[in-house]
Design goal:
mainly alpha, 483 residues, 19 helices
């Protein structure tokens, strides 16, 4: 059995489950400290890319209560984060949800959870390259460069794959740097805008936190949209075999990433909302954060914010690619061809899984490449993943409820998770009842087909069923979580 570095002993439970794996069949343990670990979760959320346009989207849906719906959504997402924290305190692996939900709720449940979350990340990786292109258009225009969004998006895919293949420390550093600098620019701009008082001279008004006469059902739609703002906070769990002391680092990374992004997003949206004369003007703005930065700070700062949105979306695509490749690698060790469990001798990256993840992200992009407007391609490509991630979160919360009962934990923990499940149920109702109209209906149907495929696949392909049933990883997870 391979001897691990003492600094990575907490990751040995997952790693030692495959003692016969060669160097090119295992991830490099103990590579990441806290900030590189949290970078994965913050990166997938892409907060800067979100706040550049989110105020206008929310104003058009929920009126002036833009920060209110974000606050409620963040609290609701906290219930889901609680489920991930409970699990990652006890067991971590590259398979993320596969390792812990499969250990407590059964191999089939674990496979469906991993299948769903992996394809969320794959679709987001492709869709976020379209976001990168959409926000790159205006940014490049200020430099006199005019490139079609399709060309920019394909270039983004190639660069993402190149960076994802590098050592995980390099990938994590790139993600951390891109998002960190972008967030710093937004905080600086919002601080100046708030100091100048915004349009009404009172940038600290509570107006963005009040419903302003909007009905609960309308606010509910805004909450559902805001829910997707925080999706991805759990991505640090995919680094369970590459993080140092994962049981100590990953739970706080998950919780802190959600908290940091929530404070950042809610604060920025509140400032931008107060900087506009009214809801109608805000909802009609293309890039409201850039517009108010131009007005209250400086044109050059607005351009920097725009570029910040570009690199944030790019970093989010990179983080999604990294996360998806780890989950596919973990599944491949149990069920897939040799290619899926290969890692690069040079960088340690799961090279075989990356090829498939990159192909999936490119296919997602190509499905909408003929759209004349990048914004429409973004909406169509990301809606599929947003629909699917709700299912992934529900599966995790259900598994966590089973876990608290099997371990006879304090009833309060089970109650908290049941409340979270009820919140997710509301999100499902608000999202799919009434059923979305075309073209978003096709996204919902595609998400349903994806889920059904994940359920049927183990029964249709016996080697897969046998592989997950005999999984060394799930046995190790059960030993760690249920002992």
């Amino acid at each position: 059995m391979t001897t691990l570095d003492p600094s990575s002993q907490e990751s040995s439970t997952a790693v030692a489950a495959y003692p016969d794996a060669a160097e090119t069949g295992r991830l490099r343990a103990g590579r990441l400290r806290f900030f590189r670990t949290i970078a994965e979760s913050v990166g997938v959320q892409g907060p800067t890319a979100g706040v550049v346009i989110a105020p206008a989207v929310l104003a058009s849906v929920s009126g002036g209560g833009t920060a209110l719906v974000e606050l409620v959504a963040a609290v609701a997402m906290g219930f889901v984060a609680y489920a991930f924290v409970i699990f990652t305190r006890g067991f971590n692996s590259a398979g993320s949800v596969y390792g812990f939900t499969g250990a407590v709720a059964g191999p089939l449940f674990g496979f469906i959870s991993a299948w769903t979350l992996m394809l969320v990340y794959v679709s987001f990786a492709g869709g976020l390259c379209a976001v990168t292109a959409a926000e790159a258009g205006p940014a490049l225009g200020t430099l006199g460069l005019h490139v079609s969004w399709q060309v920019s998006a394909v270039i983004a895919v190639v660069l993402v794959m190149a960076l994802a293949y590098l050592d995980i420390k390099v990938s994590a550093t790139v993600i951390l740097a891109l998002e960190g600098v972008s967030m710093l620019l937004v905080v600086t701009a919002c601080s100046i805008i708030a100091a100048k008082g915004g349009f009404h001279g009172h940038a600290f008004s509570s107006a963005p936190f009040r419903p302003n006469g909007v009905t609960f059902s309308v606010l509910g739609l805004g909450i559902v949209l805001s829910f997707s703002t925080f999706s991805g906070f759990e991505a640090a769990a995919t680094l369970g075999e590459e993080s140092r002391q994962p049981r100590r680092l990953i739970p706080p990374a998950i919780a802190a990433s959600l908290a940091v992004v929530a404070v950042f997003t809610i604060g920025a949206i509140a400032v931008v909302t107060n900087a506009y004369p009214g809801v109608n003007q805000l909802s009609a703005a293309a890039v409201p954060l850039v517009t108010v930065t131009d007005r209250f700070v400086a044109g050059w700062m607005g351009n920097l914010i725009n570029f910040g949105g570009v690199v944030s979306a790019f970093g989010a695509s990179l983080a999604c690619t990294v996360g998806a490749s780890r989950i596919l690698f973990a599944l491949g060790r149990d069920t897939g061809p040799v290619m899926l469990r290969r890692t690069s001798r040079l960088t340690g990256a799961p090279s075989g899984a990356l090829i498939w993840v990159g192909a999936g992200g490119l296919v997602t992009l190509l499905l909408f490449i003929r759209e004349p407007l990048a914004t429409r391609a973004v909406a169509l490509s990301l809606t599929y993943g947003a629909d699917l991630i709700i299912v992934a979160y529900i599966l995790v919360v259900i598994a966590a409820i089973i876990f608290t009962i099997r371990r006879r934990m304090a009833p309060a923990r089970t109650v908290i998770l049941l409340v979270g499940l009820a919140v997710l149920g509301y999100v499902v109702k608000a999202t799919f009842a009434p059923f979305p109209a075309p073209p978003y209906r096709w996204d919902a149907l595609a998400a349903g087909i994806t889920l059904a495929t994940g359920i049927v696949l183990p029964f249709a392909y016996p080697p897969l069923r046998r592989g997950i049933r005999e999984s060394p990883l799930l046995k190790a997870g059960a030993s760690a979580l249920l002992r």
